[in-house]
């Protein structure tokens, strides 16, 4: 396994618009974080949100997922308004969310975690869990183990799989590599790509900006709650101004 995630040519992504965030203001209490924010996802893409700490990246995901209601603007899923809807309803409608922390139940086994992820399913639970075990063999190996006994990377795999039990069209992932040892980070990004290969469109926040962009189709750079740059991921990686301001300069690796 190489030390660096290779740049991925993902030009074959579908072009159908699946998620739109249009002119959204949002925040916490009276504190505004997002200002006139607009972005979109095309079906089949991985889109990466990068930017400095406090730029509003995680707030975007929380607002899309209904944990925060947009103050102004509109969020649509396949053209249907979803802004401010209850997260449980959004899960049923095809939106999943993997938060940065508290994304698994440590006191439950892997199998119990997966079943908790599918409580809203009416049928097909055993089949989809079996498929996830096939896709992520480490989970089958440890299906009876408590989630708290897993390594950081294994917990992240479980968090992805748990979100996939409902077979979402769109998965929101917040900082998948946060707090993980460098030796594990590439595995986590490979698992993000595996999730995408299963047919799930991904909107990902990632502080490891270069590695996040390398597996993505497009990217948005957020700064002070607004989009500062938007482009294909490889173009953002090659943009000297983006590199200087947000990627740590040309010598950053």
TrEMBL record:
Biological process terms in GO annotation: L-amino acid transport
CDD domains linked to this entry: ABC_TM1139_LivF_branched
A Pfam match: ABC_tran
Molecular functions (GO terms): ATP binding; ATP hydrolysis activity; branched-chain amino acid transmembrane transporter activity
Name used for this protein in its record: ABC transporter ATP-binding protein
Family: Belongs to the ABC transporter superfamily.
InterPro entries in alphabetical order: AAA+_ATPase, ABC_transporter-like_ATP-bd, ABC_transporter-like_CS, BCAA_Transport_ATP-bd_LivF, P-loop_NTPase
Segments forming domain ABC transporter: 16-249
Swiss-Prot/TrEMBL keywords: Amino-acid transport, ATP-binding, Nucleotide-binding, Transport
């Amino acid at each position: 396994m190489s030390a660096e995630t290779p740049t991925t040519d993902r030009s074959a992504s579908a072009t159908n618009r699946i998620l739109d965030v249009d002119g959204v203001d949002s925040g916490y209490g009276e504190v505004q974080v997002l200002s006139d924010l607009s972005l979109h996802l095309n079906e089949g893409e991985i889109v990466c949100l990068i930017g400095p700490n406090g730029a509003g990246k995680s707030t975007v995901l929380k607002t899309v997922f209904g944990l925060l209601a947009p103050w102004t603007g509109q969020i649509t899923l396949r053209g249907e308004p979803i802004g401010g809807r209850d997260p449980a309803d959004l899960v049923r409608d095809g939106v999943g969310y993997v938060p940065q922390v508290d994304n698994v139940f440590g006191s439950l086994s892997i199998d119990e975690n997966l079943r908790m992820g599918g409580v809203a399913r009416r049928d097909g639970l055993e089949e989809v869990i079996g498929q996830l075990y096939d896709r992520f063999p480490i989970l089958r190996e440890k299906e009876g183990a408590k989630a708290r006994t897993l390594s950081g990377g294994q917990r992240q795999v479980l968090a992805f799989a748990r979100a996939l039990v409902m077979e979402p069209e769109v998965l929101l992932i917040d900082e998948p590599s946060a707090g993980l040892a460098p030796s594990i980070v590439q595995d986590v990004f490979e698992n993000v790509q595996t999730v995408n290969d299963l047919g799930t469109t991904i909107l990902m926040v990632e502080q490891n900006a270069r590695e996040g962009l390398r597996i993505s189709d497009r990217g948005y750079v957020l700064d002070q709650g607004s989009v500062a740059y938007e482009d294909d991921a490889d173009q953002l990686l090659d943009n000297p101004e983006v590199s200087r301001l947000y990627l740590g300069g040309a010598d950053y690796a």
